[in-house]
Amino acid sequence: SQKIEQNSEALNIQEGKTATLTCNYTNYSPAYLQWYRQDPGRGPVFLLLIRENEKEKRKERLKVTFDTTLKQSLFHITASQPADSATYLCALDNYGQNFVFGPGTRLSVLP
Amino acid sequence: DSGVTQTPKHLITATGQRVTLRCSPRSGDLSVYWYQQSLDQGLQFLIQYYNGEERAKGNILERFSAQQFPDLHSELNLSSLELGDSALYFCASSVGRTVVNSPLHFGNGTRLTVT
Questions:
Q1: How far apart are CA B7 and CA B66, in angstroms?
Q2: Which of A5, A7, A13 is nearest to A84 (CA)?
Q3: Predicted pLDDT at B99
Q4: Per-residue pLDDT reduced to its tens digit, A20-70
Q5: Separation in Å, CA of B17 to nearest CA in chain A
Q6: Residue A100 has pLDDT above 70, yes or no
Q7: Alpha carbon B106 to chain centroid, angstroms
Q8: What's the pLDDT tens digit per position in B10-37?
Q9: Is there a contact between A18 and A107 (Cβ–Cβ < 8 Å)?
Q10: Which of A43, A101, B49, B85 would give a disulfide with B43, using CB separation of 3.0 to 4.6 Å?
């Protein structure tokens, strides 16, 4: 069956360190993968999109990798700050029909 | 601010009732998507409209229906409500007909509580 897993429900890291979040999928063949940030009581906010033929994408302190062989995407936040604390969702395209979201990882950056 | 407006923000109603959730997409976006988010299910895709026509259907119950009007705003109708329908309902919009390379812009949701 189709499944999207994100490494852990919650991740705590110290301010200034790099946070690494994982998104693994089974029985999907996404051409695109996106990462979103969601704060409590708010809608998800788009962060980055990566195509299947791109190995890596960067935007300021954010970096995303996409390995279609491993069926995995990694999302890195470097020099993390308390303001980065939020839930991060990966989403992959379901044969172009819609985006399917993972369950999310709740990141807490401790000062 | 995503530019997507959802009303109302909160809705409390009783089992068996019917409610309507409203969404105005971002200016210029032709696609509207509805998602349901509950604690145990995460974000679940319900339905997509593109320029007034239904384009894709997800895990939408028969008790739920939606439409997109000529001015591109959309409504999600939920009827014969059950306790399990309590959730956050999000509307998102995007420019294109297909999602593949378009980010979704989400509203801040309608929190529905069924008592």
A1: 15
A2: A13
A3: 63
A4: 999 999 998 888 999 999 999 899 999 999 998 998 999 999 999 999 999
A5: 24
A6: yes
A7: 10
A8: 999 999 999 999 999 999 999 999 999 9
A9: no
A10: A101
Other beta carbons less than 10 A from residue B85's beta carbon = 21
Kindly report the number of other CB atoms within 10 A of residue A25's CB atom: 22
Query: Please, which residues 12-71 of chain B have a Cβ atom closer than 8 Å to chain A?
Result: 33, 35, 42-43, 45, 48, 56, 58
Paired tokens of B100 = 């593949």
Q: A35 is written with which tokens?
A: 């990462």
What single-letter DSSP state applies at residue A17?
S
Residue B26 is given by DSSP the state P
Q: Say which of B90, B99, B108 has its CB closest to residue A99.
A: B99
d(CA A64, CA A33): 10
Q: Which two tokens stand for residue A1?
A: 């069956």
The C-alpha atoms of residue A50 and residue B7 are separated, in whole angstroms, by: 32
Both tokens of B13, joined, read 């109603």
Angstrom distance (rounded) from CA B53 to CA B85: 25
The Cα-based distances of A2 to A72, A92, B86 in angstroms read: 14, 12, 25
